[in-house]
Amino acid sequence: MPVPILVLVALLALPLQAAAADDCAAPQTNMQMQDCAGRDYKAADAELNAAYGEVMAKLKAMDAELAKQQAGGGLAAALREAQRAWIQFRDGQCGWEAAFFKGGSMQPLIRTTCLTELTRARTAQLRQTWKSYGAGQ
Fold it and tell me: PANTHER family recorded for this chain (predicted)?
């Protein structure tokens, strides 16, 4: 009867998973800290992707309008190139910061926290740049 035992173990683990979700208010272990940092990064990355998508759609529309007027364009391509360069920077910067903790249990947490911070900053930068230069066009 190994199947009922596995089901029982799985059911007993459910409250532990729910408790783990609440532990982000005050994580106690490295594993909890890394789990919470991972969730923060996923949320920050989703917000960045949404902001990038919004700005990119507006830039494509501007490019189309500028092309009609024979007044240049290339705004969407410029953002795409800048974003690709930024991703390289972000990954390199966070790898460097984490390297100070190479081999230690804090290395993944430092990297993930860095990714989150830089991703949030980039989201704010995209929105501010659009607000400063694109919104009035």
Answer: PERIPLASMIC PROTEIN, PERIPLASMIC PROTEIN-RELATED
Summarize pLDDT for 78-91 with one digit per residue, the tens.
Answer: 999 999 999 999 99
For 74, other C-beta atoms within 10 Å of its C-beta total 12
pTM over 0.85: no
Write the DSSP symbol of residue 69: T
Q: What token pair was written down for 137?
A: 């066009």
Taking the C-alpha atoms of residue 18 and residue 84, their distance in angstroms, rounded to an integer, is 37
Report d(CA 4, CA 22) in Å as an integer.
Answer: 29
Instruction: Please state, in angstroms and rounded to a whole number, the distance separating the CA atoms of residues 104 and 96.
Output: 14
* Nearest to 44, CA basis, from 110, 121, 131: 121
Buried b (16+ CB within 10 A) or exposed e, 77-112: eebeeebeebeeebeeebeebbeeeeeeeeebbbbb
**Both structure tokens of 119:** 């991703």
